[in-house]
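User: Can you model how adenosine-5'-triphosphate sits in this protein?
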Amino acid sequence: MPLDNEHLLHENSIDPPKGFFERHPGTPNIPGGWEEYLKLYNQSIENPSKFFGEKAKEFLSWATPFTDARYPPGNGFQNGDSAAWFLNGELNASYNCVDRHALKNPDKPAIIYEADEPNQGRTVTYGELLKDVCRIAQVLTDLGVKKGDTVAVYLPMVPEAITTLLAIVRIGAIHSVVFAGFSAGSLRDRILDADSRIVITSDESLRGGKIIETKKIVDEALKSCPDVRNVLVFKRTGTPHLPWVEGRDLWWHEEIIKHVPYSPPVNVRSEDTSFLLYTSGSTGKPKGIQHSTAGYLLGALLTTKYVFDVQGDDILFTAGDVGWITGHSYVVYGPLLNGATTVVFEGTPAYPDYSRYWDIVDKHKVTQFYVAPTALRLLKRAGSKYVQNHDLSSIRVLGSVGEPIAAEVWEWYNEYVGRGKAHICDTYWQTETGSHIIAPIAGVSKTKPGSASFPFFGIDPVILDATTGEELKGNNVEGVLAIRNPWPSMARTVWKDYNRFLDTYLRPYEGYYFTGDGAARDQEGFYWVLGRVDDVVNVSGHRLSTAEIESALIEHNLVGESAVVGFPDELTGSAVAAFVSLKKDVDNPAEVKKELILTVRKEIGPFAAPKLIILVSDLPKTRSGKIMRRILRKVLAGEEDSLGDISTLSNPSIVEEIISTVKRDA
Ligand code: ATP
Ligand code: MG
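Assistant: Here's the modeled complex, given as structure tokens:
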């Protein structure tokens, strides 16, 4: 539906901070502010072909121009299917990310690499990046990689990870990045599912001062992957004890120097696949989400440009791994498509101490900083002293992604990191959406702590009644979040399983893309993402959002993190259980539990008060830092024998502790 100011009153919202404009005296990418956003937004959903057709012509470089911006023409999901974009056009992703900037400005920094150890990084210019990309592209061609083949990537956060992705798409192949923290079993499953024949990895990797034996994990995985022909190994630590399979394993540095520094890009068609990425698996078996080339690139480009207001000389620091969609879209593609500089950070926020992010921001004068709430909770818990005494005045935009950000954490981010002068952009999106779908536009949108605010161009969100599927119109409604129309960067299918794609996203509510998340639209039109639909607890007919209860709990000064789930209750249908990790040990846990219950009663209401509080030392999290609530639900239900796939957990040992604590306390 078109947006109009009458329905968006912004009474309780916060204006873009004045400091945002002082910190960048130039013109924002949407110079006309909110009025211009509304105008562009309405154009984008009324005539998506025209809107995105023009943007695609203006901002992407085409080898062959496209003939039709969208097929089928018109709008909406037609006949239960999605749409295709930029038909008959041909382009190359690496050309758009590298060549066109390198040709104009070869000495401009493309990548600032911050190694795990401070002061061991380096800068890679666009000119250097182009040479490396071309050379690795030739290495891959020599290894028999062809257009349409998948290549598995299991690399730490080093510049060579970017080189690798761009080299793969340069020859029209498909990258399938597996986060280099996943176990051998998870890697094996993904290599087999994607049918990758080549794996690119490093000898070892370093994170937080610890060594991870990357190549050994690959070797273990490959025991059950007979079709893998070659492993290309980047030398990161130079360990002398490296297992080596002659004939199969090849050194990156030995192969790269065999090739000339330029090779032409292989153009692909707009809808050709550029990559697969398996979702993080918080809700079930990972799915190989398949993305297009042109539509994906346009989404990453436009959101980086508008949501983060990225301009030519900006330096973006997305503190996320290239193993996740956030790394794909906002470490690699978004910044480079815009010709900006991207920070590639290998380490952790806690090494050598909790000021590492702020050291990096200060040192490189980062203009946009982007991170997940899980890291912010960690840093907030560590104490504000680590943020103070850093010059963070270069920052204009502070992004958040991955989970709802509790108001308490939002305020901390705003006050201690942004110092009231940065625009906080809580970006809501998914692996499947390719780029931000609900997010404030920096320098333009008003915000409210905890709300992702308004839809991005081309996204027509609706709130549906979960059971009837009926659209809930107007403001002040709550239900499940769906999107009424296809947009260029949405996933095209689940790898080799279009039927699963339809079942998961397009069939649950006919005519809509179903996000799987619950959401509300408040009286001023702001969207609030309430967490996955499975994460809603129904107590005596009250539909409670677990995210909201968790936000209340974190207001208590002893709470580090919490996860709320429902469990069956004879009286109320469901009851609320809260798993809580405290910032420090306490002498009187019973007293603390009482206080926590009081906090929720006070913040939300008596009906939301947890019936059960379980104190644990940590929560089960995926490797991208998301809490896996389904495990907690299973444990509470006494179904610990059927926990399902927990291979994507970063701290599997915590499960045993949780099981025994629940047995004792519940
Ligand atoms: P899987 O789909 O395998 O269960 P996942 O959904 O965790 O894994 P991602 O695609 O990385 O994998 O995450 C997308 C989900 O993250 C969204 O559906 C939403 O639940 C949550 N999310 C992301 N950003 C936000 C945000 N800004 N606010 C609230 N929730 C968010
Ligand atoms: Mg998901």
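A couple of observations from the model: The CA atoms of residues 293 and 524 lie 36 Å apart. The first strand starts at residue 68 and ends at 71.
User: Helpful, thanks.
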